[in-house]
Amino acid sequence: MIGIPRNFLANRVLSFCLAAFIVPGLVTGQVATAQAFQLLSHRAIYELSLLPGRGGDISGVTGRMVLEWADACEGYTTQQRMVMRLVSGEGKQIDSDFRLSSWEDKSGESFRFDVRTAFGKATPEVIKGRATRSGVSGKVEFQKPDGLSLKLPRGVVFPSEHIGRLIDKALAGESRMALPVFDGTGKDGLFETVGLVLGPDAKKTAADDILAKGKMPLVPAWRVRLSFFDYNTGDSLPSYEVSLRLFANGVADRLVLDYSDFAVVGTLKDFTILEGAGC
Fold it and tell me: Which of 52, 93, 146, 193 holds its CA 20 to 30 A away from the CA of 36?
């Protein structure tokens, strides 16, 4: 097998994010202050490729990620699939297929997740369970692997609330946010995160034509970088980072998934508003 960092093996996006990409999802949940913009139920499709000059031992990346987010009245649902092929400098290939389905209630107190990761024709690894938060701390009970549980630290949030709070920071003109996040990717899915809002981003690219064709509303956008640190080791260097242009309605484009040894670009190729979603 090509040597790949553990966090890549989980195919996290902003699940963040690119959930990831939890990467688990690029959407927001219940936040402390009133939202200035309506969050948009949508489906986005991204083409994946190797970031030039950041391949390391990887000579090529091809793949696609589909991310779907919807307001489901009492909570938010995320469906994500990420299929990728990596090629090493010696020509060896590895295919991965990552699927995530989650539901997070709007209070931020409950988060259900079902994650499946497969490599080649191997039997998929399945992680399934429910995380709850009461007051300032929480816990995770896993159905798969059976019997596994995890305590969550003070101040922990789940992926939707995490990105929601970051959008609030950007709307308020603030530039930094640090929070512990559980993203649903198993016992190692607890991270200390640092989010940086690097400033407004009105740069025009081909993605703007795709968004306009999909009737994307005009809302502010910012360049954002999220760094994910292993919560239990206290490492000073992030396990991985995600950069993106984040819109105030939760839509994202211009993704860069940085796994330290190599980096992957996510280029928006299709965008659809999910009509009829919401309450």
Answer: 193
pLDDT at 278: 63
Between the alpha carbon of residue 105 and those of residues 109, 140, 273, the distances in Å are: 7, 15, 21
| Per-residue pLDDT at 174 | 96
Taking a C-beta distance cutoff of 8 angstroms, is the pair 223, 198 a contact? yes
Closest CA to 115 of 96, 139, 133: 96
Q: Please tell me the predicted confidence (pLDDT) of residue 9.
A: 40
Rounded CA-CA distance 189/181 in Å is 8
Q: DSSP of 24-69, one letter per residue?
A: --S-----SS--SS----EEEEEEEEEPTT--TTEEEEEEEEEEEE
240 residue type, one letter: Y
**The model's pTM:** 0.86
What secondary structure letter does DSSP report for 16? -
Q: How far, rounded to the nearest angstrom, does the alpha carbon of residue 197 sit from its chain's CA centroid?
A: 16
Residues of the chain with pLDDT under 70: 1-38, 277-279
